[in-house]
Structures are given as structure tokens and as C-alpha cells.
Amino acid sequence: MDRETTVADTGLTAGLARLAAQGPAVPPGHPALDAATRAFIDTIGVALAGWCEPPVGLLAESLVEGVEARSLLGGRRLAARDAALLNGMAGHVLDYDDVAVHGHPSVVLVPAILAEAQRLGRSGGDALRAYALGYEAWAELGRRESGSYHLGAWHPTAMLGTVAATVAAAALNRLDAETAIHAIAMAASFAGGLIANFGSPAKPLQAGRAAASAIEAVSLARAGLTGSPTALESPHGFLRAISPGGAVDVDGPLRLAAKADDLRLLSEGLSVKRYPVCYASHRAIDGAIDLAIQERLRPEDVARITVALGRAPAATLRFPHPETSTQARFSLNHNVAAALTDRAVGFAQLSDDYIHRPEIAALYALTETELVDDECPEQPGLARFDRVRIETRDGGRLDSGPIRYPRGHARLPLCDADLDAKFLDCARHGQVAEGPALLERLRALETLTDLSELVA
User: What is the pTM assigned to this prediction?
Assistant: First the structure.
């Protein structure tokens, strides 16, 4: 495939602006549109599940009425940026949204596109193409960082997402390349979010704020405000600012898709979560469930649990003794304990009552980590393999073996039936009675002439 042009000739900021203004056409029925449809289904499903969470309710109460777009639940009319903010927070509050290239692309892209497409009266096909272009921008930014953002301070979903969603929103607005440059420059200044806020409601708020900031950046650029044409690649620019160790390539060639078949959404894909917890623990959960089933293991049989994993995931899973469901989502100890006890990690295993059950809490102290420095070439920040080893009270030693891809990974994807089942389970958790009807509309998203029909 012919992707490369030089940054010296065009500039990274200008290159992403051209992607927004002149990116490849995506014909009807193309696999990239199918992949984007799956992203919308998964993201909207987890957002429906998140609507019942108290932090989402608090945010909703703070927003004033508008006319540009509807929220996902209840059809409340809001300004487009507020609809993106609210839907983005709802989509990330349970940490159940998809994963790729340093973070969670869809939970920023989908809320921004959904809100802005409603405001503009764009079609489902327009929205899906915008998603593919936004993902392309995200992947181009992400591949330039050779370190792990999760070993730094900046929240990569919020940082990369603001810029990528701006590319998507600029495409929906049909901005010319010059105006898109200024939108991207402002988005780079708007981006923000801290890893220190993981395990608190501020983390999902950061994802929602990224989606809202993308819409605001495009609006301001359309109004005539301008920014630096080298905001991303400058020595004082975005990528250098957020790089945890300075190992970022701002001078290498652009590798943006010239045609639909080359889109990274197809070559790199999305990893859909099977469990509503931080993705850093998913390999270990798979390993623990498999061992528990194969060996008919009971929690009281366990003497010691050792999980081998990379340094960045270990740093992210920062709550060995969680006190709340939010903390439990970032607790390797809790997720392994639930996996061994129930052979499942779902909504039921994340209630406050479950977290404090004595037999669950007893397993927390038995779990330890072993750091692995052999990094995965496909999944930045992760070890090449994770592994779960369990010692039993009768002297037995159980070993999961190396685990490369968790279930739902882009290389081990969920089938459509499993994705639909996840969506419907999320709708039930969010007490959304019309889940099946909404799923049917989402499956036909490419054919909708106006995205307002989706949330009517």
C-alpha cells in the first residue's frame, strides 16, 4: 500500500487536516463501514449501561437544555457539545468500551460524531466514514509514541481522542484543509486528562470532555479563529508535550490511507471488552477463569496467585484492596478473585456488596504481580504475554501458560451474536426497554438518511 508522504513536505498537522478534508471515499457496503458500525453498537451499548451511574446523573443535572442533538437516553435535547460530553462520560464510566492504540478510541469518536451528525443532519454513512477517518488520525498519532503513555501522567484516551475526534468532526462539517488545520491546532490546546484520576469519576469525564472539545474546536475554526499550523509536531507542540519519555517521532513520514482498503480500522482493528473493567486485567481474567473451570478450582483451595504482566498495566491496576466499584475496575486483585470465584467478571461482580464479601476480600491478599519487561509489539505498554500461576493448599501448581490476546481482541474478535448479546445485556443493566429496537436501527446505521433517526 502507498501511504507515505514526508512530514517535511506537508507537516503532521496539515496532513491530518488533509485527511479530514480530502480523505478517501468509502463506498457503500465496504468492510470499513461494517467495522465502524460494530464500534457504534458497542459504544452506544456501554453508554446505555452507564446511564444509571450516579456520576452521569450529576453531570446531566448540570447541563442546560439545547436544540442541536439528543442524548442517548430519554432523548433530551442539548447543545451538540453537551450531548457529546454526556454520552462520552456515560460510555466510559463503566470502563467497558473498546480498546486500540494506547487507549479507547470509540468512546471519544462515537459521542462526538453522533452529536455533530445530528446537528448537521448528516447520514449514517457520513457518520461511519467520519469514524474511519477519526480512527486513522488516532492511529497515526499513536504509532509515533514508542513508549507507554500509561507510565506518564497524561490520559491518552483524552489526549489523542480530542485531536482524532476533531478530524472526524471536521470531516462531517466538510471543512477545507486550511480551516481543519486551525481546528486541529485548537484541539491540541484543548486536550487534557490525567492518569491520576483513574479510579474516580473524573476519568470518564475526561473522555466526554475530549468529545465535546472536538466539537468546540471545529466550531471555533469555522468562526475564523486560528492556531499554529505545526501544533502537533512542533518542538513545543502536542506530541512532545504528552510523550512520557520523549521517545516520540514527529519527523517521520505520514502513513495515512489513500484509499478505503488501506484504512487502519481494517488492518489494526478494535478490541472489544468482554468484561466491564480496565483492559489491563483482561488477559489475567481469561487465564483465571480457564484455570478455575479446567481444574474445578474452589476459592478456598487457593494458597497463592501470581500474575505476570507488563509494567504499564501493573501501574494502571492501582487498587489492590478496592473500596468502591470504581476502584475495583482498576484492581487486578479483585478481578482475579471474581474470576476464580464466579468464573465471571460482570456487573454483578462489581457491586459494593460483592467487593466487600469476606471470601472475595480474602483472595486480595493472596494475589501478587510479577513484572515482565518483554513488551508486546502489537499492543503498546503490554507485555508480550501475561500469565497466571496458582499454588493450591494441597501443594498443586497450576499455570495458564502464556496469554497473548484476551477474548474480544482484534485478533480474537467477538462474533456478531456475542456483540449483540453484550449490547442487550448493557441495555438491560441501564434499564433501557427499547434495547432490541435500538440494536436493529444500529445494525442498519449505514442506511439512515439522518442520524437523528437513531435517537428519535
Answer: 0.92
The enclosing H or E element of 428 equals helix 416-429
Angle at CA of residue 140, ends 215 and 122, nearest 5°: 35
Phi, psi angles (nearest 5°) of residue 418: -70, -35
Query: Does the pLDDT value for residue 6 go beyond 50?
Result: no
Q: What is the pLDDT of residues 315-367, one digit of tens each?
A: 999 999 999 999 999 999 999 999 999 999 999 999 999 999 999 999 999 99
Residue 429, H or E segment: helix 416-429
| Maximum Cα–Cα distance across the chain | 72
Q: Among 143, 140, 147, 145, which residue's Cα sits nearest to residue 248?
A: 145
Q: Can you tell me the distance from the alpha carbon of 206 to that of 197, in angstroms, rounded to the nearest whole number?
A: 9
Is residue 14's pLDDT more than 60?
yes
Three-class secondary structure of residue 143 per DSSP: helix
**Rounded distance, CA 26 to CA 185, Å?**
26
Distance between CA atoms of residues 118 and 54, nearest Å: 26
Task: Look at the block and give the residue holding cell 501511504.
Answer: 3
CATH code for 4-273+424-453? 1.10.4100.10
**Pair 251, 8: CB distance under 8 Å:** yes
CB atoms within 10 A of CB 197: 15
Report how far residue 97's alpha carbon sits from residue 99's, in angstroms, rounded to the nearest whole number: 7
Q: 271-291 burial, b if ≥16 CB within 10 A, otherwise e?
A: bbbbbbbbbbbbbbbbbbbbb
CB 92 within 8 A of CB 204: yes
| 24/256 Cα distance (integer angstroms) | 10
Q: Residue 42 contacts by C-beta under 8 Å, 6 or more apart in sequence?
A: 97, 98, 106, 270, 272, 419, 422, 423
Rg, Å, the chain Cα set:
21
With beta carbons less than 8 A apart as the criterion, state whether 251 and 260 touch: no
Question: Looking at domain 279-399, which of 3.40.50.720, 3.40.190.10, 3.30.1330.120, 3.30.1340.30 is its CATH number?
Answer: 3.30.1330.120
